Amino acid sequence: MIKIHDLKKSFGDNDVLKGINLDIKAGEVVVVIGPSGSGKSTFLRCLNLLETPTSGVIEFEGTNLLDPKIDINQLRQKMGMVFQNFNLFPHKTVLENLTISPVKVKNESQETAEKEGLALLERVGLKDKANQYPKSLSGGQQQRVAIARALAMHPDVMLFDEPTSALDPEMVGEVLAVMNALAKEGMTMVVVTHEMGFAREVADRVIFMDKGVIQEEGTPEDIFLHPKNDRTQDFLEKVL
Ligand code: ADP
Ligand code: MG
User: How many other C-beta atoms can be found within 10 angstroms of the C-beta atom of residue 21?
Assistant: First the structure.
């Protein structure tokens, strides 16, 4: 589904991504781990062109994203993104947060969008919050709304950038449970997280990123039980 070849991104003379190579298959769950500042967010943001790569190739469903003629908005519809800080529209109700893009961007009827929105809210356990405003929800609830909002666009892949890092510990589980269910339904997912339990349980493949390159990748078992790279070993010793 996604082929990444020699992806580089620099900010001025700061070479953040130094040649990333990765293929992601449909239905695969790829978890990206690595120290702060290693380029994980930049990598995700390059995938949906929130950042413009400096060089390399990103092919998504057969289209080269670095082709200047590409329709970025159409691309973004196919890639849902969930951020650390939820980024919900504060002056829209929960349900409106879910319906606004399908109606405006995909020309769905209000009725269809609301019906789907409510079904998605039910899926993340928040149907009863449909008419409330984001600020009256807990962080965990807001993040579940953010996931439902991304799903409302029927993306082919979901990108998660530390979706539980801003949450109080007691709310992490409810968000991971939604992500786990999504993975089981076959969604293609790229997840940057420090939740090693989630990585172990849900990832098909774990990528250890450091200093702008993929230092090591493998199954959760490879990475967590038999890491080969010294940097991977150091990192895991610190976080586990
Ligand atoms: P991670 O998500 O792994 O913590 P980031 O991708 O956020 O790492 O950051 C990697 C490096 O890129 C850092 O040195 C950061 O300062 C730099 N960086 C990220 N975004 C920008 C930006 N928009 N402008 C300049 N430098 C940036
Ligand atoms: Mg980051």
Answer: 14
What is the domain range of residue 73?
1-235
What's the CA gap between 137 and 118, in Å, rounded? 17
Pocket test for ligand 1, best of 7, 13, 15, 16 (most atoms within 8 A of CB): 16
Beta strands 2-11 and 14-24 are antiparallel
∠ Cα 37 183 81 (to 5°): 45
Question: Quick one: 27 exposed, middle or buried, by C-beta within 10 A (0-12, 13-18, 19+)?
Answer: middle
Cα-Cα end-to-end distance for the chain: 32
- H-type alpha helices, the chain: 40-47, 72-78, 94-104, 110-123, 139-151, 169-184, 196-202, 220-225, 230-239
Q: Note the pLDDT tens digit of each residue in 111-130.
A: 999 999 999 999 999 999 99
Residue 240 in any domain: the answer is: no
List the CATH number of the domain containing 218.
3.40.50.300
Distance CA(220)–CA(224), nearest Å, equals: 6
pTM given for the model: 0.97
Q: What is the pLDDT of residues 10-32, one digit of tens each?
A: 999 999 999 999 999 999 999 99
| Three-state secondary structure call for residue 48 | coil
Q: How many domains does the chain have?
A: 1
The ipTM (two decimal places) reads 0.98
Q: Whose CA is nearest to atom 26 of ligand 1?
A: 11
